[in-house]
Amino acid sequence: MPDYSRLAASAQRVIAAAGVPVTLKRDVVDDYDPTQGLADTLGGNTWTGVGVRDQFKLKDIDGTLIRTGDVRIYLVITLDGSAPRTGDLITMVGDTWKIVISTPIKPGPTVLLYDIQARK
Question: Which of 18, 57, 99, 111 has the greatest number of CB atoms lying within 10 Å of its CB?
Answer without folding.
Answer: 99
